[in-house]
Design a protein that fits this description.
Number of helices: 9
CATH class of the largest domain: Alpha Beta
Distance between the termini: 9 Å
Number of domains: 2
Structural class: alpha/beta
Largest sheet: 6 strands, parallel
Mean pLDDT: 94
Strand content: 5-15%
Low-confidence stretches: none
Length: about 210
């Protein structure tokens, strides 16, 4: 069965977070460094913030309650208003005829600012931002809701993302085909058939 629907992640799938991280997270990094009330290595924390929902990073590195509170105050109104650029091969995605959805985790205000800066809002039938400040839902919950709302047959859906513990795992649990977009070579050691490094490889999964 060919795929008629594509569900995409945003961060590190459509654009590289590293391209905006230094400026975007400057205040946040400063708050964490000044506090020092966490476990682990600061540089590792900075890297994880670029690819994992912040609340999960804070828990993994045992942020104190005060540090978590201070970080949330920085995060809650954070936006990115400078020019942004998606991965060049994303242009290939835009040309695909399939119906596309965007499901992304993060703070609503920040994620909306990225989407608008990238000028990709009109590429998607629906955009869902999973804001952990506002919901306990997971990407699995969102995917199930989209399947029901739009009456989507599972075998016609393909989930594309960079995080094997998030959207890829959720897709597997729901019995939906997935593709790992590994442009940043995070999973170079992973020997699987559903991994691509460029969207030019995506059509073979459609």
């Amino acid at each position: 069965m060919s795929k008629s629907v594509l569900i995409f992640d945003l961060d590190n799938t459509i654009y590289p977070v590293s391209s905006i991280a230094e400026k975007l997270f400057e205040k946040l990094y400063a708050v964490i460094e000044k506090s020092g009330d966490y476990k682990g290595d600061l540089e590792t924390i900075k890297l994880e913030i670029q690819r994992t929902p912040f609340q999960k990073v804070a828990k993994a590195f045992s942020f104190s309650e005060q540090l978590l509170k201070d970080c949330m105050e920085v995060h809650i109104n954070l936006t990115y208003d400078d020019p942004m650029q998606y991965f060049p091969d994303y242009e290939l995605v835009r040309k695909l005829p399939q119906t596309k959805f965007l499901v992304t985790s993060g703070f609503s205000k920040l994620q909306h600012s990225k989407i608008d800066n990238l000028a990709i809002r009109n590429d998607f039938k629906e955009i869902v931002i999973l804001d952990l400040q506002q919901t306990n839902d997971t990407k699995k919950d969102i995917f199930k809701r989209l399947l029901t709302k739009y009456n989507l047959p599972k075998d016609e859906v393909l989930i594309v993302g960079d995080d094997i513990k998030s959207e890829i795992q959720a897709g597997k649990e729901l019995g939906i085909d997935t593709v790992i977009y590994d442009r940043l070579e995070k999973y170079s050691e992973l020997n699987v058939t559903n991994k691509i490094e460029n969207f030019s490889e995506l059509p073979k999964f459609l």
